[in-house]
């Protein structure tokens, strides 16, 4: 078996871990001579560690720190090595392809008589996080409950797709996929968007409201500066840094995307691989870790124009949150999407801040919200996902699709006139449902 390449980008994770592990030795002189004013800002664990080190001779303290750094480095490297050689490989059979254009495919999870739901994942990672393993598959769960998930699966952009803008993604991939879904349906269909796929799904629903019975959003970002105004400068800097890469390659490569995610928490790899190294390799939790880590490292390059639109337009200028994002020249107005919507907003999300996802719910008339006590990825694969996310999502989608097929079509004015922005409501407690 060929060893896995390790968490991507591996050099960045190794450098971050090394910097962290060596920082204690480098800071030892400062812990003894630092000003009383600066020490008041230290957290309590750091105070306790400094007091213990201060009780030792300087040479003994340095040797103790060196031993501890060596031990932690060994634990990290052991976890990395065990991950790269773990025997697990994903072997779930792929569902049949219902429609394909370029690198985009629509996979049919059945059953044929189920209620159709078009599922739109993020453009950044592979779609199979929604079908990770036989025990952790949201899509197979939906199918077993009488829905018919139709997963829009993205692959590596080729040829003309490297020049795609977000408008191209909507017009040339999402809308044809919706048409293919409607061709096997008997009326309006459900729409489900995860992460960035939820943001794209909102644009699709704004353009094709009569074809959508209801829309469910899983951690879909909208206000990219909510609770994080510093994102503006980070987005602009990331866009500027990516210009030469995109010009040379035509895409923003996977390692470049992963490096951006690493900035959210540079020491994630150090913590999780150190913990993984302590697990029994044959234990179920070890296999689940490898399955998820394989997916995390199996990313997709972004078409160059899409990458720059997202970095500069979404994160830099907050175009969706300010009402300035346009598809094919038309503004995307969530206020005008008069369709039932459910917004599942994980309370522990560090990738899409809950306030960013709430902003979309607050702009959609009659929106319902559920805030499970889970993280961004945990909401679709964690042990608590079935109870907190899968089951309420299934029930809501089934009800929305059935209602959408029996209700008379909305008059044109209701479909196209944007209502006034809904009043901002306080956040709901984790795991509770509310109307926004």
What is the gist of this entry?
With 436 residues, the chain is α/β, with parallel strands linked by helices. It has 16 helices and 13 strands. The chain is globular.
As an assembly, this protein is: single chain
Q: Can you count the helices?
A: 16
Percent range of helical residues: 40-55%
Question: Which series of helices and strands comes N to C?
Answer: HHHHEEEHEHEHEHEHHHEHEEEHEHHHE
- How much of the residues is beta strand, in percent? 5-15%
Query: Tally of extended strands?
Result: 13
Low-confidence stretches: 411-432
Q: What characteristic shape results from the CA principal axes?
A: globular
Explain the overall architecture.
This protein has 436 residues and is α/β, with parallel strands linked by helices. Helices cover 47% and strands 12% of the residues. It contains 16 helices and 13 strands. The protein has helices at 10-33, 36-39, 44-54, 58-84, 138-144, 166-183, 196-207, 231-249, 254-262, 268-276, 284-296, 304-316, 354-363, 378-381, 385-406, 412-416; strands at residues 97-101, 104-108, 115-120, 147-153, 189-194, 212-218, 251-252, 302-303, 326-327, 330-331, 341-344, 368-370, 433-435. The strands form three sheets. The protein has a nine-stranded mixed beta sheet, with helices on both faces. α7 (196-207) links the parallel β5 and β6. α6 (166-183) packs across α7. The longest helix is centred in the N-terminal third of the chain and has 27 residues, at 58-84. The N and C termini lie far apart (51 Å).
């Amino acid at each position: 078996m060929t060893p896995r390449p390790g968490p991507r980008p591996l050099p960045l994770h190794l450098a971050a871990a090394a910097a962290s592990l060596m920082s204690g030795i480098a800071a030892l002189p400062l812990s003894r001579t630092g000003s009383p004013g600066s020490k008041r800002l230290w957290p309590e664990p750091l105070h306790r560690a400094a007091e213990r080190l201060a009780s030792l001779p300087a040479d003994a303290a340095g040797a103790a720190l060196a031993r501890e750094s060596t031990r932690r480095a060994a634990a990290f490297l052991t976890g990395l090595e065990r991950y790269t050689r773990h025997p697990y490989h994903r072997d779930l059979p792929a569902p049949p392809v219902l429609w394909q254009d370029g690198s985009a495919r629509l996979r049919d999870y059945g059953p044929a008589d189920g209620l159709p739901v078009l599922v739109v994942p993020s453009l950044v990672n592979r779609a199979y996080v929604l079908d990770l393993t036989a025990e952790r598959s949201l899509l197979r769960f939906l199918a077993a409950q009488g829905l018919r998930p139709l997963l829009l699966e993205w692959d590596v952009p080729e040829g003309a797709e490297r020049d795609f803008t977000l408008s191209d993604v909507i017009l040339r991939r999402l809308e044809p996929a919706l048409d293919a879904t409607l061709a096997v349906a008997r009326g309006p269909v459900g729409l489900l968007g995860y992460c960035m796929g939820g943001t794209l799904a909102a644009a699709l629903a704004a353009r094709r409201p009569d074809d959508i019975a209801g829309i469910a959003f899983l951690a879909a970002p909208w206000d990219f500066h909510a609770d994080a105004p510093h994102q503006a400068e980070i987005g602009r800097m990331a866009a500027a840094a990516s210009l030469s890469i995109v010009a040379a390659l035509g895409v923003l490569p996977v390692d470049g995307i992963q490096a951006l995610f690493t900035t959210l928490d540079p020491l994630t790899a150090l913590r999780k691989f150190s913990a993984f190294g302590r697990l029994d390799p044959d234990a179920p939790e070890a296999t689940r870790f490898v399955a998820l880590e394989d997916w995390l490292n199996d990313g997709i390059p972004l078409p160059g124009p899409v990458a720059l639109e997202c970095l500069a337009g979404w994160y830099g200028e907050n175009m969706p949150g300010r009402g300035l994002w346009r598809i094919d020249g038309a503004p995307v107005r969530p206020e005008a999407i008069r369709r039932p919507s459910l917004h599942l907003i994980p309370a522990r999300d560090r990738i899409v801040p809950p306030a960013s996802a709430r902003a979309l719910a607050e702009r959609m008339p009659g929106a319902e919200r559920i805030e499970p006590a889970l993280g961004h990825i945990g909401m679709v694969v964690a042990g608590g996902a079935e109870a907190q996310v899968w089951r309420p999502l299934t029930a809501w989608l089934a009800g929305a699709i059935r209602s959408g097929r029996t209700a008379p079509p909305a008059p044109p004015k209701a479909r196209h006139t944007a209502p006034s922005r809904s009043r901002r409501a306080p956040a709901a407690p984790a795991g509770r449902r509310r109307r926004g």
